[in-house]
Amino acid sequence: MKTVKNILIVAIMFALSIGYSVNEETNPTKSKTVLVFSNVKKGHELIVKTVNGKVVYRETIERNGTYAKRFDLTALEDGQYIIELDKDFEIVLKPFNIVDHKVNFLKEQEASIFKPVVRLEDDKLMISQLALDKNPLNMELYYEGELIYQVKMETESIIEKVFKLSENQKGEYSLRFSSGDRIFNERFTL
Known about the structure:
Radius of gyration: 21 Å
Number of strands: 15
């Protein structure tokens, strides 16, 4: 039954998005764009920002499932923008531009950035990342606020590293990752 409801919702959203794209062509100053993302979870973030990083809209997803919402993106100034869906282990990027109150999504530039995944088993710190953009992953490890280790991890497409932590150094640790222009932080206790 849930599958039937999901299919019906997707079909309705598809029909709505087709209707709005027709509206964009006929009346560009009053058009709306329907954003639809499937498999979202409560706590994920939807962000619209300029290519320079200025956030123009931010929303925290309220529930699991399919996210669908109408936006009047033509109200933004002419320029280049990015819609980001910040998920647990991935950031989905959907760039678009606005010229003369017309929205143009740049499908060929859509991408995903995969965040580093951190697991701790006993005193072993395991780091992995799917790095399709092949950017190196820089890692800084802090113990009680003091930098104790840093490394630059380069790879073709998959990063997998295991670090052994000292059993005698119990306490608060934090990790700071940087890759390209992205920074990711993680905290854990040993």
